[in-house]
Amino acid sequence: MSSDPHVSPEDSLRVSVLSEALPYIQRFSGRTVVVKYGGAAMVREDLRDAVFRDLALLTCVGVQPVVVHGGGPEINQWLARVGIEARFRDGLRITDEATMEVVEMVLAGKVNKQIVNGLNQVGGRAVGLCGSDGNLIQARTHGDGSLGLVGDVAAVNCAVIKPLLDGGYIPVISSVAPDAYGKVHNINADTVAGELPAALEAEKLVLLTDTSGILQDRQDPKSLIRQLSLSEARDLIGSGVVNGGMIPKTECCIRALAQGVAAAHIVDGRIPHALLLEVFTKAGIGTMVVGSQAHLYD
Fold this sequence. Notes:
Order of helices and strands: HEHHEHEEHEEEHEEEHEEHHEHE
Distance between the termini: 29 Å
Strand content: 15-25%
Number of domains: 1
Largest sheet: 8 strands, mixed
Radius of gyration: 19 Å
Strand order of the largest sheet: 5-8-2-1-11-13-14-12
Low-confidence stretches: 293-298
Mean pLDDT: 90
């Protein structure tokens, strides 16, 4: 701490923290980081504002964040308003034509623009997109089509995103996209987040969730697994250690790593500034799944 009486301990601590972050700022400056934004961090105002500030700060130090978001609770609220029952099978929303209209309205319209406006309010320069914009994402119908207009990612075209990143903008992407015939589909946001990093040649993928990460024992928060290899992550799904809602998030990490992304992180978005803690500290938080380039994070 400084011996100068005019410098408070709080100010000295802030400067120390910034200084310690310098190696990470240098490492990630000019690199792309894909952030899956969801859970409590989208609902609680204090957490929402912290995420927006974190994303704006990343751009200020040269990092290029790309945000992918869902909006399930908001969709459910609007479906109830118009008298449509929300139905799910195996964690996926059954999406008929009427439901798809609401999904597109909420995700590509209301939720997307709320995020864009929030980022702009804290000094970010955000641009809202969905899969239709610039042919960013092409969907294909999931499985046998029995879920209706539920899609998987057939192709990604990042030509519309890269100029935005180069210009210092933050792309904010909702997970609705047309198929080859122009029929708009509802794609799980985790699925989109798993496909984008490789297409963007991103440095890493960060998923903000409502869990502390992958637990060896889901009843014991202290059993957090700090680091996993790609093969270990697959084994944990196969053995049932990873189950329920953690399966699509872990599969999202696996998809990104299998396509060459160096690392993917599942972090607790309920912790204020979780994003900065993950990117700019040595220990990070949550679970990191690493691929063949794990040495970059030693």
